[in-house]
Amino acid sequence: MIKYLGSKRRLIPAIVGAVAALPGARSVLDLFAGTSRVGLALKTAGYRVVANDHNAYAATLARCYVQADRERVLTDATRLVAEFNALPGSPGYFTETYCERSRFFQPRNGARVDAIREAIARKGVEPELEAVLLTSLMEAADRVDSTTGIQMAYLKEWAPRAHHDLAMRVPEVVERAAGGAGEALQEDALVAADRAVDVAYLDPPYNQHKYLGNYHIWESLVLWDKPAVYGMACKRVDCLTRSSPFNSRPRFAEAMSALIARVQARWLVVSFSDEGYVTREAMEAMLATRGPVQVIAHDYRRYVGAQIGIYNPAGEKVGRVGHLRNREFLFVVGG
């Protein structure tokens, strides 16, 4: 899967274990799906998963890893991935924007992305297969990028992986879950919260880091709308206008309270961090309106950018990160 700020890779055993401990639970709604790493783990464990995210790239990942089933897409995906890997590069919007105007990828790899993305568009395949192919291309590009893992900026010197040749692989799509067919949504969380499921998993943005700005290249790659861009990182112009109340300190508590009240599921499993906009105690108080709250805490190193430090646009180190570890909380609510 792609490198992702806030990935719950290390928490997955605890999340799946928390859901497994809920009697009779068969379906889970993941309201802020991100890479769908959690949704995929729950699908693999047998749950029917509904994965939601308002960003197009995340909805595509969910359509690949949660909605698409291996038995339906594997044969065609394998054939098309081999076909696309044989295509020569053809420089276009992606190369000009992310290899020449900025320096996220080597130009030869950008040209391959352009050629493959245009080929996917011409195929006109059904949505689940298209999502598998787009996910394959995103992941292939992610393996040869030159960033610390987010697209707010590119590295001053090329990352070693950027010199490798881009190559697609068939994503590790799994078979349909015993609990039933999965579903991918691209809705506001308050709208998706109405879905009838047993468990709702909430992992909202809870600080200033906006996922669209951090992964704007994937949004443009999936939408293939070739938008106007701005700044050294060539961000999509709609990064300036698309926002979430969960990324706002003054608005977070109200938005989270409204979401907690709106969710229809019997149980809630909520991920949060001590880097969030509200304290652990405040989050517990909000969740207690839905029933008894259990808390599981984990101590982790912060993401790689924090380990590297703070630099100005000229690449000079200008500050020291306040802390290198954080606590991740898993709240289990209801009963």
Please tell me what the overall shape is. globular
Number of domains: 1
- First and last CA, distance: 34 Å
Give the % helix.
25-40%
Low-confidence stretches: 302-308
Helix segment count?
13
Strand residue percentage: 5-15%
**Strand tally:** 11
Question: Order of strands across the widest beta sheet?
Answer: 3-2-1-4-7-11-8
Major sheet:
7 strands, mixed
Assign the structural class, choosing from mainly alpha, mainly beta, alpha/beta, alpha+beta, or little secondary structure.
alpha/beta
> What's the mean pLDDT score?
92
- The H-and-E topology, N to C, reads as HEHEHHHHHEHEHHEEHEHEHEEE
* Computed Rg: 20 Å
Explain what the structure shows.
The protein is of the alpha/beta class. It has one domain (9-333). Helices cover 39% and strands 15% of the residues. It is built from 13 helices and eleven strands. It has helices at residues 12-20, 37-44, 56-67, 70-85, 93-100, 107-123, 127-142, 189-192, 211-214, 216-223, 249-262, 280-287, 304-308, and strands at 27-30, 48-52, 183-185, 199-202, 229-230, 235-236, 267-273, 293-301, 310-311, 317-319, 325-333. Strands 3-2-1-4-7-11-8 form a seven-stranded mixed β-sheet, with helices on both faces. Strands 5-6 form a two-stranded antiparallel sheet. A hairpin with a 4-residue loop joins strand 5 (229-230) and strand 6 (235-236). Helix 3 (56-67) crosses helix 7, helix 3 packs across helix 10 and helix 6 packs antiparallel against helix 7. The protein is globular. The model is unreliable at 302-308 (pLDDT under 50).
